[in-house]
Every structure is written in structure tokens, then in C-alpha cells.
Specification:
Blueprint: H1 2-26, H2 38-61, E1 66-67, E2 73-74, H3 83-94, H4 100-108, H5 111-122, H6 129-163, H7 174-197, H8 202-215, H9 221-228, H10 236-248
Antiparallel strand pairs: 1-2
Length: 320
């Protein structure tokens, strides 16, 4: 039993060391540049979903895009002012039914939108999802193993304690020999899991905060949605249609509150960029982003953002 306990302790400590060093090494070191426009602010604040929502809001504001009652899009004036608006219009032309949720989902996969995440990741303002996925999975596996071993050690320890009554030289209880190592392994797994799930970097949060403070006075729809989410849209009918489109696609809309805790959450479907060659990427959905209109804590209650310095990007559903 002593040899078995030593093997457990050595394995858990070695796994924790590899997990800790790998997670820290996967984080970008420093950044180059600031947030340059509302597109990058929207991506940091809520991922591709908020980028698209911002462009849709801008198109809707001056009548270039109209959404009918059941959520059907029409574009009476297909005149884009930038690449992101062109992505929305291209998505509209490719949507057979013109449904808002289909247009929104297709626009999130558009190269113009995905390249925003690639550029932010290359500049160290956001974390590439592929490098985080391995360490997040490792954290979950190690945490579960430590918990199961700890629970399994309780009945074994009880048997050992009973045996001590008749044995003149009883071994140390299993929970005493392996318990501390399992506790350390669990704490390391929890901390590394939270760190690996965080998409935004410290530099990205700082850059978004600075941009939000400098442009908080702007009242155009693109900046309003980019910095505050769909809840900033003054038209309640259109705001509801955009939120419903997000829910229909399983992304939860784009108007949540700001929360730094959401930056650490990665449990929603499609939190990473999609449409790329990376087999680990999933379909467009939601995840966590970083930022708020006031430049406070990084995150959104349901928003998503992520990055890839070398591949396509997509994702993000809700955003604050």
C-alpha cells in the first residue's frame, strides 16, 4: 500500500508541474498595439457575434437593413461602409430565407470578421483557442482524477483505521499519505483550468478599457453595440429581434451585463472561432469576451471572444 501511495503522490505532483508550466507558457507575452476601431473593441468585448451585431445595428439605423416582424431581413440599400458591413450584406445574399439568425451566423464566419480575431491574437490582445484547449482539458481530467481518488481513499482509510486495532505495526492511513498531494493537484487543476479558459489577456483588457473611455461619448450604433452590447440599442423591437436571433442560434443574444467572471467561463457551445482548419474549433456560438463600455472589468455575462494567430475565427454569442 505504501508503494501505491507513493506512485499516486509522484504522479499527481508531476502532472501538476507539467500542467502549471504548460498553462503559463500558453499565455501570450506582452502585446503590440492598441484597440484601433469599434470592430476590434466589439471583438474583444463579445467576439464575432458582437462584431456582427454592431454592423447589423449600424445598417439598421439608417434604413439600409430592415428586419420584419418574424425576424426576416431585407436590404433595400446594399451600400456597405466597411468590410464588416459588407460581410453582413454578403451573408444576407447567401441566406436562402433571409432569416436574421442565419444572416448573423453566416456573417460571423465571414473572413473579414474572422481576420479580426486573428490579428488581435497575433498582437497578444487575445488568447488563441487552440493553445488553451489542451491545458483546459488536462485541468478537467486532473481535477476529476484527484477528486475520485480522494473519495476512494475514504473507505480504504476507514478499513486501515479498523485494522490498526489488531495490527502492532499498522501503515499510515491512505488519506494521510496521498491526501495532501491530491489537494494540491486539485487546486492546481482548478487554477489552471480557470486561467486556460480566459480568452482575453491583461493587455487586451487594458487596451479595451482605454478605448472605451476615449470613445464613450460616441452615440453611433456601431460604437454603442461594440462597447455595451445589444442592450444599448434604443429601439426595443429591433433589440428584441437581435436577441431572439442569438437565442435561435444557441448563442444567447448579445446584451448581457459586464462581468469579469464571464471571461473565465468557456462552457457555452461554440465559444472558440469556427470555420477554420483547426479540428478543435467548433461552430459559431458564445463564450466570453473582455470589456465594457466604461472600461471596467474584462468580460460579459454571455459574450464571447477568442483568438487565433494563425487560423480562422468565429464564435461569440452574447455580449454585454
Amino acid at each position: 500500500m505504501d508503494v501505491f501511495a507513493y506512485v499516486i503522490v509522484a504522479t499527481v505532483l508531476a502532472s501538476s508541474l507539467v500542467l502549471l508550466s504548460g498553462t503559463l507558457a500558453s499565455r501570450p507575452r506582452g502585446s503590440t498595439g492598441e484597440v484601433r476601431d469599434w470592430v476590434e473593441a466589439a471583438f474583444l468585448g463579445g467576439g464575432p457575434a458582437r462584431v456582427v451585431d454592431s454592423a447589423i445595428a449600424a445598417l439598421h439605423a439608417d434604413g439600409r437593413l430592415v428586419v420584419a416582424g418574424p425576424g426576416v431581413v431585407s436590404v433595400p440599400r446594399p451600400v456597405p461602409r466597411d468590410a464588416i458591413e459588407r460581410a453582413v450584406i454578403d451573408a444576407y445574399h447567401g441566406a436562402p430565407s433571409g432569416a436574421l439568425y442565419l444572416v448573423r451566423a453566416a456573417a460571423m464566419r465571414h473572413p473579414a470578421v474572422q481576420e479580426v480575431g486573428d490579428d488581435l491574437a497575433a498582437r497578444g490582445l487575445i488568447v488563441p483557442p487552440g493553445t488553451r484547449r489542451v491545458w483546459r482539458s488536462w485541468s478537467v481530467a486532473q481535477g476529476m482524477v484527484c477528486l475520485l481518488l480522494l473519495l476512494a481513499g475514504i473507505p480504504v482509510t476507514l478499513v486501515q483505521l479498523m485494522w490498526r486495532l489488531v495490527d502492532e505495526d499498522p501503515p499510515l492511513p491512505l488519506i494521510v499519505t496521498v491526501g495532501p498531494a491530491l489537494a494540491v493537484g486539485g487546486v492546481v487543476a482548478l487554477w489552471c483550468g480557470r486561467l486556460a479558459a480566459a480568452r482575453g489577456t491583461r493587455e487586451g483588457r487594458a487596451a479595451l478599457t482605454a478605448y472605451g473611455r476615449a470613445h464613450a461619448h460616441l452615440g453611433d450604433r456601431a460604437h454603442l453595440v461594440a462597447l455595451r452590447g445589444a442592450r444599448a440599442i434604443p429601439d426595443p423591437g429591433f433589440r428584441g429581434q437581435l436577441a431572439a436571433a442569438g437565442r435561435m442560434y444557441g448563442s444567447g443574444g448579445s446584451g448581457g451585463g459586464s462581468s469579469s467572471a464571464a471571461l473565465l467561463a468557456d462552457g457555452t457551445p461554440g465559444g472558440a472561432w469556427c470555420g477554420g482548419s483547426d479540428p478543435g474549433r467548433s461552430s459559431c456560438g458564445s463564450g466570453s469576451g473582455c470589456g465594457s463600455s466604461t472600461g471596467s472589468s474584462c468580460g460579459s455575462s454571455g459574450g464571447s471572444s477568442c483568438g487565433s494567430s494563425g487560423g480562422s475565427s468565429c464564435g461569440g454569442g452574447s455580449s454585454s
